[in-house]
Amino acid sequence: MAVLRIAISLVFLWPVLDKTFGLGYATPTERAWLNGGSPTQGYLSSISGPFADTFGALAGPVTDWLFMLGMGATGLALLLGVGTRVAAVSGTLLMALLWATTWPVAAGSTNPVVEDHVVTALVVIVVALTRAGSTWGLGGVAERVGVPAWMR
User: Fold this and answer.
1) Where are the domains of the chain?
2) Is 115 helix (H, G, I), strand (E, B) or coil?
3) Backbone region of residue 47 per phi and psi (left: phi > 0; alpha: psi in -120 to 50; beta: other values)
4) Alpha-carbon torsion 61, 116, 150, 5, what sign?
5) Which of 56, 99, 129, 141 has a beta carbon 3.0–4.6 Å from 117's, enabling a disulfide?
């Protein structure tokens, strides 16, 4: 479970790194957040479907910060193995919002029933429920020093 926790943490941390520095994968260098680009503008303005207007209107500096902080904090909590229950809530919320941007599933998609956002949310929940932060993480330390269970 610790390997799964660390792997899923990178699903959250990678977009933060790529969008901040423009590492040339999903985000070219010239569109990096540090170069004045928006981490959310391109994606949210290209959505089609019933929520296109709603999500398109959300694009902007506040959403940039909320998205990057949410993804970064969730990924860091999962990587360190502490705060995994809080990370499960925030990660599931982020994945639900990202899933909503892709709904309804396009005809011809590879799996119209369960797609990657749903699987990611389920993995984050399982990581929290199995206390995976106690192995190779700070969850055990947090428990020993008396951190409340909901924060571990």
Assistant:
1) 2-151
2) coil
3) beta
4) negative
5) 99
* Alpha helices, DSSP H, located in 34-80: 41-45, 52-58, 61-80
Q: What mean pLDDT value characterizes the chain? A: 91
Asked if omega into 148 is within 30° of 0 (cis), the reply is no
Measuring CA to CA, how many Å separate 64 from each of 20, 56, 59, 84? 10, 13, 7, 23
Q: Which of 46, 80, 42, 87 is nearest to 64 (CA)?
A: 42
- 23 contacts 37 by C-beta, under 8 angstroms: no
pLDDT surpassing 90 at residue 6: yes
Burial string for 127-151 (b: 16+ CB within 10 Å, else e) reads: bbeebbbbeebbbbebbeeeeeeee
Direct distance between the N- and C-terminal alpha carbons of the chain, in angstroms, rounded to an integer? 15
What does the pLDDT average to over 115-119? 91
132: helix, coil or strand?
helix
Q: CA–CA separation, 133 vs 79, rounded Å?
A: 8
Neighbours of 35 (CB within 10 A): 13
- Rounded to two decimals, the pTM is 0.89
